[in-house]
Specification:
Layout lengths: L26 H7 L3 H11 L1 H36 L9
């Protein structure tokens, strides 16, 4: 006698329709949701302008972190390859 596989949160029986609340949003719905950003930004600005500016600046800094990480990695790799080729010393590394 075999048992059916356990029905976890992510498993479904074949042929059953996905309920509306579990269906992922379509691209059209996602783009339509962007219309709420300007009113939200206005509300945040009215609450505290300094907070709004600081959050925007922190988001910009946070967006630059991956770029800076890749740049430092590139510099390290360039120095290691140059040292391996005899064009740089290990002191440079």
């Amino acid at each position: 006698m075999t048992h059916p596989p356990p029905m976890g949160a992510g498993s479904r029986r074949p042929g059953r329709a996905i309920p509306e609340e579990e269906r992922p949003a379509s691209w059209k719905e996602r783009i339509a949701a962007l219309r709420y950003i300007p009113p939200l930004a206005r509300l945040i600005w009215q609450t505290h302008a300094g907070y709004t500016v600081s959050m925007m600046l922190l988001r910009l800094v946070r967006a630059c972190v991956p770029i800076a990480t890749f740049w430092v990695g590139k510099l390290i790799l360039d120095t290691v390859l140059a040292a391996r080729a005899g064009q740089a010393t290990y002191a440079t590394l």
